[in-house]
Every structure is written in structure tokens, then in C-alpha cells.
Amino acid sequence: MRLGLLFSLILAIFAVVFALQNPQTMDVNLLFFQTQGSTALILILTFGFGVLVGLLSTLPKQLRTRRKLKALQNEQSTGSTSSSSAATPPSSAKGSRAGGTGSDSE
């Protein structure tokens, strides 16, 4: 995780340095949309759009994983509650053993 964060930070620093060294304006054409802006602004917007698309592409898998984890946690918590009550004998059953002493040291 830290390696990915470090790599992202270095990449962002290179993007800023590139943007600052290329202040000239450039044209952007996308289908019927045309605009003109500085290279730095267009680079930052493009980078941000790429990050957004990357996060949105991982969102369905993250939601499925969270839903599955919650279901497993609910299953585990209900399973441990029912198994612990089944494993512990009721207190009235201790005195009704054969021999009738009620002591557990046999």
C-alpha cells in the first residue's frame, strides 16, 4: 500500500513539473466540444479524470466485497451465538445426573 502511495506521489510531482515547464496554450477537441487552455490545466484535469475513472471502475467490486464481508460477519455472529448456547448445558441439568451428587469431578 505504501509503495503505491509513494509511486502516485512521484507521478503527481512529475506531472506538476511537466505542467510548469510547458505553460503554452493548447487546443482540445473532443467530438463537438472545442476549447483552449494552458497545458498545465489540461494535464491536471486529464489526470484527475483518469483517477476518477479508475476509482469508479473498482467501485462495483468493492461494493460486492463489502456486502459479502457483512454477510459473513452476520453469519458468524449468529452462528457463534447459537453454538455457544447449545454447547453450554442448562444449570438444572447438572444436578440431574445419575448418582445425584451434583459435583463435576468424576
Using the alpha-carbon principal axes, give the shape.
elongated
Q: How much strand content do the residues show?
A: 5-15%
**Protein structure class:** mainly alpha
- The total of beta strands comes to 2
Low-confidence stretches: none
Mean pLDDT: 78
Q: What is the radius of gyration?
A: 32 Å
How do the SSEs run, as a string of H and E?
Answer: HEEH
Largest sheet composition = 2 strands, antiparallel
Q: What's the N-to-C terminus distance?
A: 56 Å
What portion of residues is helical? Answer: 55-70%
The strand line-up of the biggest sheet is 1-2
- How many distinct helices? 2
List the helices and strands and how they pair.
Elements (H helix, E strand, L loop, with lengths): L1 H20 L3 E6 L2 E6 H49 L19
Antiparallel strand pairs: 1-2
